[in-house]
Amino acid sequence: MVDQTHSATGARPVAARPIAFRGGGFAPRPVRHVAPALFLVLIVLVEAGTRSGIISNLTLPRPSAVALTLYDLAVSGGLMQHLVPSMRRLGVGIALGLSAGIGLGVLIGLFSLIRAGLVPLVAALFPIPKIALLPLFVIWFGIDETSKYALIAFGTFTPMVVATYGAVDNVDRTLVRMGQSFGLGWWAIVTKIVMPGAFPAILSGMRVAIAIGIILLTAAEMLGAEYGIGAYILTAGSLYDLEKLFAGVSILSMLGLMVSFVIGRIEKRMLDWR
């Protein structure tokens, strides 16, 4: 492209040079295959270390042996026997905890009276180790499924409340004032400005809350559960069967990866406006 304008002195046309875009805003760019490659390298190193004797088999089992244990567990049907109850407990618990936490967090962020009454209560409950409350929940709800649901729900509820009202607080008030200057009503401001602005931080809080839920699921199943990933890990640990122990831990790790993947897809689909 050539600029056709000439100066008064009759200078020759000057070729216009494109300017590189500089407004990326430190946006992360996807780099594929790095994470699988790093994971594969770690597995190969551990496998080589255990086979050569540098790493004792009493400390870490061979990854190949753990993979074989997982295969045998899947073929025998034991995987689904333990995974299905765990997924049910986790699903019910986090559904109750996240829905209540998000709802209460939004109310705290929007209404000063509710904030004044509940923020001190949430601040007092948040630091309590939820695993320490497991015996109390067993006393209150019994040793059956209800105590497990309640523990997971309570453990995900408090971090979700904190993350949600913090997200509402951090919404740019300039946007709120702009909406008010254009005559938007209260409900329109909440649904069109506040909630979309708070949604990214709410999703980040969900990652943390669900991770806590998985930890509490394992602890709850170690107490009074016949089937479940936590019960499987407890049995393997009591027998000092490291292959089964690491197989159970690997299942929990894959469960966490699956949760991260799902939330990442939600972010990509619903937050493309960023």
Notes on the structure:
With 274 residues, the protein is an all-alpha fold. It has a single domain, classed as Orthogonal Bundle (MetI-like fold), CATH 1.10.3720.10. It contains 10 helices and no strands. The protein is flat and about 70 Å long.
Largest sheet: none
Number of helices: 10
**What CATH architecture would you give?**
Orthogonal Bundle
Unreliable residue runs = none
How far apart are the termini? 32 Å
What is the number of E strands? 0
Pattern of helices and strands:
HHHHHHHHHH
The CATH superfamily label reads MetI-like
Structural class designation: mainly alpha
Specify the overall morphology.
Answer: flat
Task: Please give the structural blueprint.
Elements: H1 34-52, H2 63-76, H3 78-110, H4 112-125, H5 134-141, H6 145-169, H7 173-181, H8 186-221, H9 229-238, H10 242-270
Helix pairs in contact: 2-10, 3-4, 3-6, 3-8, 5-6, 6-8, 7-8, 8-9, 8-10, 9-10
